């Protein structure tokens, strides 16, 4: 890998051992990927809040030691300076307001808070969401970023036209401290061209449809770059958020194109870069029916203990929809309804009265975490319902529960009746 003079100085320790450790990670990582150089970045999103699962390994709760070991691969406690790049903390293990609902002790909550304070003191912005683009981190077209979180990566690559690969905890932390990331993969023009043409012959009228289409395509495309042909109605940001999360869950898609919708594909030909697609796939209604069936395959009962909305974290429009669906109604005593959103949006939802409406019905709005990331559920949960293909994919495997997937309205109805219908 070719380094600039400044990068070589960082690697040699001129800016301290923490920066040198970060550079070693990036050089090793870049060489494994085949990168010939690094590229500057001023937009990094990582997950570097550490809690009891990490402290138990080291037998130490000191945030500096945990960051040095798990983010910078150092057995020594390093003096970590302020970050060079604009940096954000992604979704974490704790809701700062409802940690007790998670079954968390006050001691554990305090330990996580200390880790967050450590990051904040070094300039990391505690957005604490899987959707930073909803709460202020909105990368510009063509900007080189270094982001974790598969649904966030596919969103900013595709919908915003920013450039990032799916980073890991260590590479993201290293980018925060150095302002560099390997110039490889989706940072390069040629890697961003569509490889597969997907002719969509099924009607796409709702967010539910986009969830299912994404889940089907991820399964058949793996890590390809698809361009969707045949989309007549313009999807809204929630549709694209849910579609990207689904396609990155059943597969490894990090970028997609939709002519006249996404910024790098004004036409089908532009998305392909004038090349012939490696393969043309057709998606019909029967494919979506089959994908929806797979998403519902883990449920052994129609008795619903838990309804989860907000994966990826819910937008204000999604929170409003839930509040309106619950208006004047009451959630079943046997069922919990939790809506997950960034803290910043929970604040707005409270000002708008959406939070009060949801809580009057017996629901809760939680922030900064989710059941899959933090591995928690309401006590006694055996069967859940969700409007997220991503959550329906991951939660059964992570938590050993059965799940139903459906539209938001069907999920809210399940919360009110305590049963899944249809």
What do these coordinates show?
- Strands 12-11-10-13-14 form a 5-stranded parallel beta sheet, with helices on both faces.
- The protein is α/β, with parallel strands linked by helices.
- It is built from 17 helices and 14 strands.
- The protein starts with a helix and ends in a 5-residue tail after the last helix.
- Helix 5 (106-121) links the parallel strand 3 and strand 4.
- It folds into 3 domains: 5-188, Aconitase, domain 3; 193-294, no CATH class; 296-417, 2-Layer Sandwich (Aconitase, domain 3), CATH 3.30.499.10.
- The radius of gyration is 22 Å and the shape is globular.
What topology emerges from the helices and strands here?
Elements (H helix, E strand, L loop, with lengths): L4 H8 L4 H17 L4 E3 L3 E3 L5 H7 L4 H8 L16 E3 L16 H16 L2 E2 L20 E2 L2 H11 L8 H10 L1 E3 L13 E5 L6 H15 L4 E4 L7 H14 L17 H5 L6 E5 L1 H11 L10 E4 L6 H11 L9 E6 L1 H9 L2 H7 L3 E4 L3 H4 L8 E4 L2 H11 L2 E4 L2 H10 L5
What would you call the shape?
Answer: globular
Largest β sheet strand count, sense and barrel closure:
5 strands, parallel
- Estimated structural class: alpha/beta
- Total DSSP E strands: 14
Number of domains: 3
Order of neighbouring strands in the sheet with most strands: 12-11-10-13-14
Mean pLDDT: 97
Distance N terminus to C terminus? 57 Å
State the helicity in percent bands: 40-55%
CATH architectural grouping of the largest domain: 2-Layer Sandwich
> According to CATH, what is the class of the largest domain?
Alpha Beta
Q: Helical stretch count?
A: 17
Low-confidence stretches at least 5 residues in length (pLDDT < 50)?
Answer: none
């Amino acid at each position: 890998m070719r380094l600039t003079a400044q990068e070589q100085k960082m690697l040699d320790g001129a800016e301290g051992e923490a920066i040198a450790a970060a550079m070693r990670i990036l050089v090793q990582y870049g060489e494994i990927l085949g990168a010939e150089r690094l590229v500057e970045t001023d937009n990094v999103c990582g997950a570097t809040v550490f809690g009891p699962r990490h402290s138990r390994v080291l037998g130490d709760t000191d945030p500096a030691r945990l960051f040095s070991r798990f983010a910078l691969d150092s057995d020594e406690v390093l003096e970590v300076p302020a970050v060079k790049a604009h940096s954000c903390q992604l979704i974490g293990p704790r809701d700062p307001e409802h940690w007790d609902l998670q079954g968390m002790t006050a001691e554990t909550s305090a330990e996580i808070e200390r880790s967050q304070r450590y990051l904040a003191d070094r300039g990391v912005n505690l957005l604490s969401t899987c959707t930073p683009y909803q709460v202020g981190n909105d990368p510009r077209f063509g900007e080189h970023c270094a982001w974790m979180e598969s649904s966030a990566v596919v969103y900013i690559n595709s919908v915003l036209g920013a450039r990032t690969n799916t980073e890991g905890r260590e590479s993201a932390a290293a980018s925060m401290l150095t302002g560099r990331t390997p110039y490889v993969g989706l940072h390069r023009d040629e890697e961003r061209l569509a490889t597969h043409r997907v002719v969509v012959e099924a009607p796409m009228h709702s967010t539910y449809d986009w969830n299912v289409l994404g889940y089907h395509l991820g399964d058949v495309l793996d890590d390809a770059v698809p361009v969707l042909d045949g989309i007549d109605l313009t999807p809204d940001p929630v549709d694209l958020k849910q579609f990207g999360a689904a396609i990155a869950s059943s597969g490894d898609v990090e970028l997609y194109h939709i002519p006249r919708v996404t910024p790098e594909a004004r036409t089908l030909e532009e998305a392909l870069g004038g090349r012939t697609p490696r393969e043309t796939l057709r998606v019909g209604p029967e494919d979506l029916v089959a994908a929806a069936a797979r998403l519902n395959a883990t449920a052994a009962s129609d008795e619903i203990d838990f309804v989860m909305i907000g994966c990826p974290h819910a937008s204000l429009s999604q929170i409003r929809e839930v509040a309106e669906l619950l208006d004047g109604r009451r959630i079943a005593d046997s069922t919990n309804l939790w809506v997950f959103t960034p803290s910043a949006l929970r604040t707005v939802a409270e000002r708008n009265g959406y939070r009060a409406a949801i809580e009057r019905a017996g629901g809760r709005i939680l922030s900064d975490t989710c059941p899959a990331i933090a591995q928690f559920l309401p006590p006694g949960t055996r069967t859940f319902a969700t409007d997220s293909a991503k959550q329906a994919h991951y939660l059964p495997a992570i938590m050993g529960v059965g799940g139903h997937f459906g539209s938001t309205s069907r999920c809210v109805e399940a919360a009110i009746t305590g049963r899944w219908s249809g």
